[in-house]
Write a structure and sequence with these properties.
About 35% of the residues are buried. The chain has 2 domains: about 200 residues, no CATH class; about 200 residues. Helices cover about 70% and strands about 5% of the residues. The model has no long low-confidence stretch (mean pLDDT about 90). The protein is mostly helical. The termini are far apart. Helix 1 runs antiparallel to helix 2, helix 2 runs antiparallel to helix 3 and helix 3 packs antiparallel against helix 4.
Amino acid sequence: MPNEGLDAARVLMGDSLGFHIIFVMFGLTLPILVSWFEWMGIRRKNPELIRVAKFWSKIMAMLVITGVVSGTIIALQMSLVWPGILKFGGEVIGLPFMFETYAFFIEATFLALYMTTWNNKRITPKMHNFFGWMTAFGATLSAYAITSVNGWMNLPTGFDIINGKFANVDVFKAMFSNVALIEFFHSMPGYYLSASLFIAGFYGIRLMRAKTKDRMGASHKTDRFIFKTLVLFGIVMFIFSGITADLTGKYLAKNEPEKLAALELMYETADHAPLLIGGVAGENGEILGPHFKIPNALSILAGGSTTTIVKGLREYDDSQLPPLYVHTLFDIKMTLITAYVAIFGLFLFTIKWFKKWHYSRPMIGIVSLTGIMGIIIVELGWMMTEIGRQPWAVRNHLTTAEALTKTHNVSTFGYLFPLAYVGLFIVTVLALRKIMKSETKTLKGGK
């Protein structure tokens, strides 16, 4: 197939995954938040927190449904557009896909129990809350199964190839490899961070719209509690993300050095390697545009020592290197993360020393932006992971071109997938608006 067909297929899959990951982050975070707030409401005997959990659960159920539809579209693309991946590695990664189905069964079963037993007198509040936690458990298992497949594509393990055929297949070694665990424990806090802060933003907007007297009064006590709790939860997840980011850097240096070199435009192999901030790749190893370097930082990231040797791009053939614009994606991500550090630091500072500023409109407004920033960071992170693996679909074994369908041209049916996502997005937005309007009417009726 011509290169334009391959490029079109890559863009198609990238757009689909970029859309799907939004459902993923909310589908994984909301079961935890809903169960957590319901648990707090039960423990504190606070019906308002239970009401909030019930409201969120309606949104959760809606997003789980749309997430399933979105995931089904992805599965169709894997079969129609990238059949080479399953043909090559089905013996190894087929079982994780089956586990994902069982995990979803757990999630769907307990979600149904959870949603249908609200205010059911035959079900104790603690049992109902247990259904919620099991929903979160099933969702988390499902996420791990799929993440392990992606990890396997980045670092294929659990098999040998003898005389051109698979041998000594160990599915569990492939599923529970170091890269699978690192990807999972790095991505999950990122999802929790982004989704919780995005939800906090809605409550922040409600607080900003209120007059100062009302904002600090009893009428917005629950809004203040939700906003503060979700932001603090996000800060904790941000710290976990930072810890796992360090593990990710060390993993890349050892197992995917060409990806790390591309992210940092590291052309020559060296110790005491600096961390590059800014700049874009030019010809013959030049770095163009405004940039600066932090001495020794890349070596420390790669191995915890200034003497750690970091492999450069010149160690590899150009055909085996990912697009160097991944460095720009990395810079944008790090800029947003730096902004997070400043915003979270300011938020915590006002809690301790300037409580009057803590719920001021400027403070709430700045913090409310972090949800959108978080979604962008998650999207950039997966772009770096997937684009940084190119030209491989399964690293060092199967190229993306080889994985692409040979039986038809993507352009003959590819437009169906974007149309499906546009339709899904419209339906989702309309459904969420209806849920929110119904909640507003309920609150006004209660008053």
